[in-house]
Amino acid sequence: MSIPRAFLIKSRKRRLEQGHPWVYPGEIERIEGEPLGGDIVHILNHDGHFLAQGFYNPVSQLVIRVISYSEKTIDEDLFLEKIQRAWRRRQWLLPAASSCRVVHGEADFLPGLIIDKYEDVLVVQILALGMEVRRQWIINALKKIFNPRGIYERSDVSVRRLEGLEERVGFVEAAFDTQITLLENELKIMVDVAEGQKTGYFFDQRENRASLKPLMTGWGEKHGITKDKEGCLRDARGKEIKNPFWDGAEVLDCFSHTGSFMLHACLYGAKRVTCLDISEKAMEMAKRNALLNGFLHRTDFVAANAFDFLREQVKDKKTWDVVILDPPAFAKNRQALEGALRGYKEINLQGMKLVRDGGILVTASCSYHLSAARFLKMIQEAATDAHKVLRLVEFRRAGKDHPVLLGSEETDYLKFAIYEVYDR
Ligand code: SAH
Q: Rounded mean pLDDT of 353-379?
């Protein structure tokens, strides 16, 4: 049985050759054979030269998704090999990580497939029809490679509709306790893979969270704390200081979710961290995590809308040494970008107003429709309006378990910046 062949038009942009993993309907000149949705097709240029193999889905705007640049048969063994390779890459680049993203879709040459490893449990998310019809191959491979305690499916995302798929969520086979305590940068973090957002946790900021380390200490002197002749610590009014975290930062962690930034802040010496999230459930989880790591006495939890909370704190003239903003993706599509930018600017503007002179703003965006350049411009505009002068300490992207495929902007979605903030 010969494999259907899709010939691309001559005048198209050579996106596929540049590493982009999708073919759009307008790029196809003709298809030989009669592929069904989910079938493999060979992609050829107008001259009939083989370019790649991909999943076909006539219902989707991403009519073909590249799965391989070779003509080798796409079978269960190849899936096993690809997933194994993705896992080995994590073991190589993140040898200390027992929990991480194992497969990051297109960027791991497995389009529409997400696999996250939570210690001995796996979470699968399937976003493409071609993956959906090969679901059993994926499950078999995961069992073979990881021998997991359990596998949970979190295909409860609306983008599946664009592929003609219903949402699906639940245990893949036997049920198990979905609350898992994972280890990240020495911290214990309890997450719920069934109840938590996305697949339960955001692994993409692992290295970014670790980058908080130097920022969490060195604040004592700025708070007016000095050592007297006897070596006793005293505040500006001369009162003796006994707090062992006297040199630590006062931190506001907005959009805190499970509290992972708060946990890192405490680990690295913060004096006090206030966590904020709109979700009560998230705040309960964050509190449990603070308790689990012995940080409860240094933390506060507020369930509120960040837009209201930030404005109120500005009105009340509250300030912090470090303000962290890790909002959800406000722009779910390109059309929503302008509205989203207003939201991003607002929280950044209010957020930086809450930073003490010479303090730190940590700000992120995970919306891939917002380019890094536009993100930086937005911060600049917020700084102008807030009468602040910003100095960049570090600009970072997603962690190593979220590879960025050159030629595929969609895989380069996370922006993370650390600024010193000065009054103007
Ligand atoms: N910082 C987290 C991830 C944040 S995800 C981590 O590292 O794990 C975004 C979070 O923002 C979610 O927990 C969501 O509940 C929360 N959120 C969404 N809209 C919000 C709003 N308007 N105000 C406060 N929190 C909000």
A: 95
Asked if residue 255 has its Cβ within 6 Å of ligand 1, the reply is yes
> Which amino acid appears at position 413 of this protein?
Y
Is residue 19 within 8 Å of residue 406, measured between CB atoms? yes
Q: In whole angstroms, how far apart are CA 249 and each of 218, 255, 302, 383, 406?
A: 8, 19, 19, 22, 38
For residue 302, which of 264, 253, 347 has the smallest C-alpha distance?
A: 253
Tell me which H or E stretch contains 127.
none
Name residue, tokens 């890094």.
372
pLDDT tens digit sequence for 87-109: 999 999 999 999 999 999 999 99
* C-alpha–C-alpha distance, residues 16 and 46, integer Å: 13
List the beta bridge partners of residue 42.
5, 53
Distance of CA 411 to the CA centre of its chain: 11
pLDDT value of residue 58? 97
- Per-residue pLDDT, averaged over 50-71, amounts to 97
By most ligand atoms within 8 Å of CB, the mutation choice from 277, 324, 365, 415 for ligand 1 is 277
Distance 196 CA to ligand 1 centre (A): 11
DSSP state, residue 248 = B
Residue 336 pLDDT class (50, 70, 90 cuts): confident
Alpha helices in 63-151 (DSSP H): 76-93, 129-132, 135-146
